[in-house]
Every structure is written in structure tokens, then in C-alpha cells.
Amino acid sequence: MPELPEVETIRRTLQGPLINRTIESIEVLYAPIIEDETELFIQQITHQKIMDIDRVGKYLIFVLENDAFISHLRMEGKYYIVPKDTAYTKHCHVIFHLNDDLDLRYYDTRKFGRMKLVNVHHYRQELPLAKLGKEPFDIDPKALYQLLKKTGRPIKEVLLDQSVILGIGNIYANEICFRMKINPIAPANHLTLKRVKELVAISIEVLNEAIAQGGTTIHTFSANGIDGLFQVRLNVHGKKGQPCPVCGSPIEKIQVGGRGTYYCKKCQRKKT
């Protein structure tokens, strides 16, 4: 699933070519991707100009003149900008026909992605965004510390909880725990305020590095044809049995909250 750095990369690659372009018409080839009534969605945003593309966590928000719509890519969602006369290919589900003979096309092999109309002025206060926590860039470490004191859940599980910390997915949670030298199953309420401040700082560091590299290419991720390069900097994710880059011990793989979790048993002892 695209995580915050991948979605930010997608936002940046789309922003330049799409800003100030007008949506002339829309074709919906797979209706369940649109959470609203399909005709309402089409009528509401056709003939509107794209003013901006925002991002909240893993959600893209297309900000138009009078309305906005959220796009959640889920597992395999991708956007491509192509000339209008480009032949349609398999897994193309929504097509935004733009001025200047361009198309914005949404592809999704799993068909899990969703789009939803929201208020252009208040979309952050509407569902689904209203139920989300803050991104590491915006979070107050002291407020996070008070929140973590109330839960004995594993720190890895908390990192994946979008209502607590927004935008971190499985890959980056593994890398953050490694850089913190914390065992992913350590209870979140064992962290001191100093360690919570470190958690926030390292989360920002990892996400910024990944954004600078265009995200991480895992399986089929690409942003309008641009593949991420952060995979060359991964320390533990996907490296079961390989030597730890710090101590040389073999990387272990366990399950935490149903997610594959990679860590170094020696570097990431259970103490926090």
C-alpha cells in the first residue's frame, strides 16, 4: 500500500501538470470506486478547474473551484497523465478528460481505491479525514506521550494506528523502530517523554528521507511512472535472514498486529 512518502510523491508529480486544468468530462468504468452516486459525482465536478492537490496522511485531495474530492489509493491505486487519444488498457477505472487533450486516468488492479466528494473549505473536518490523528510533522510530542501512557499496545501497532499517528505504514514503522533501537513489541506506555520526542524526530527523519527519494518501490508502486528509490536505504524491512547493517546478526521476522515485522533481536532489545 502506498504510504505517506509515496502519496506525497504522487501529489508532487500530479500538481505541476494538473493545476489550472479544467475537467471537461468524466468516464467511470467501475462504479464502486466512487463512494457517492456516480452521476452526482460526475455532475458536481465536471467543468471545474483543478486549483490544488492536497494530501492528508495517505489521502489525496483534489481541490477544485467549488468542490473537492478525496482519493484513497488503498493497495494498488495509480494515476497517469496521458494524451486523450491513448488507448485504454486493463484496470483503467476512472478517466478525467481535461482541456488541452489530456487525460488523468486512475488505474487499480485490486479495485480497492475509493473517491468521495467533500466540502472544499472543510474537508479536514469531514469523514474520513476527521477521524485521523496528526502526522509526525505536526504532532506535539508531549500530547503524544500523554496518549501513549494510556495504552499497553506494542509500539509497532501504535505506529500503524492512523488515529494516533497519521501517515506511517508497515515499511516505515519497521524502519523507525530499528533506528530507535526499540523492540517492535515493546509496550507503548513504557516510553519516556524523552523517547517519545525521539520517536517523533526519527519518524520525521525517515519520512523526509523517503520523500526525497520518491518513496519506496515495493512490488508495483510508481507515481505517474516514477519509481521510488528509498528501498536502497531500507535497513530491515523485507530482509529476513540478512545481516543487520549495525551488528551483523540475522534480521528476524515476526507478526505484530497481523503485519510482517522485521527487526534485529540484538539491536532492538525489549527495553525501551
Structure description:
This protein is of the alpha+beta class. It folds into two domains: 4-131, Alpha-Beta Barrel (N-terminal domain of MutM-like DNA repair proteins), CATH 3.20.190.10; 141-263, Helicase, Ruva Protein, domain 3 (Orthogonal Bundle). It is built from six helices and ten strands; from the N terminus they run αβαβββββββααααββ. The strands form three sheets. A four-stranded antiparallel β-sheet has the order 1-6-7-5, covered by helices on one side. It has a four-stranded antiparallel β-sheet with strand order 2-3-4-8, with helices on one face. Strands 9-10 form a two-stranded antiparallel ribbon. A hairpin with a 2-residue loop joins strand 2 (50-56) and strand 3 (59-64). Helix 5 (170-180) packs across helix 6 (193-212). It is elongated. 38% of the residues are buried.
Briefly characterize the structure.
The protein has helices at residues 4-18, 38-45, 141-148, 155-159, 170-180, 193-212, and strands at 23-28, 50-56, 59-64, 68-72, 78-83, 92-98, 102-107, 114-118, 252-256, 259-263. The protein is elongated, with a radius of gyration of 20 Å.
SSE layout:
Blueprint: H1 4-18, E1 23-28, H2 38-45, E2 50-56, E3 59-64, E4 68-72, E5 78-83, E6 92-98, E7 102-107, E8 114-118, H3 141-148, H4 155-159, H5 170-180, H6 193-212, E9 252-256, E10 259-263
Antiparallel strand pairs: 1-6, 2-3, 3-4, 4-8, 5-7, 6-7, 9-10
Helix pairs in contact: 1-6, 3-6, 5-6
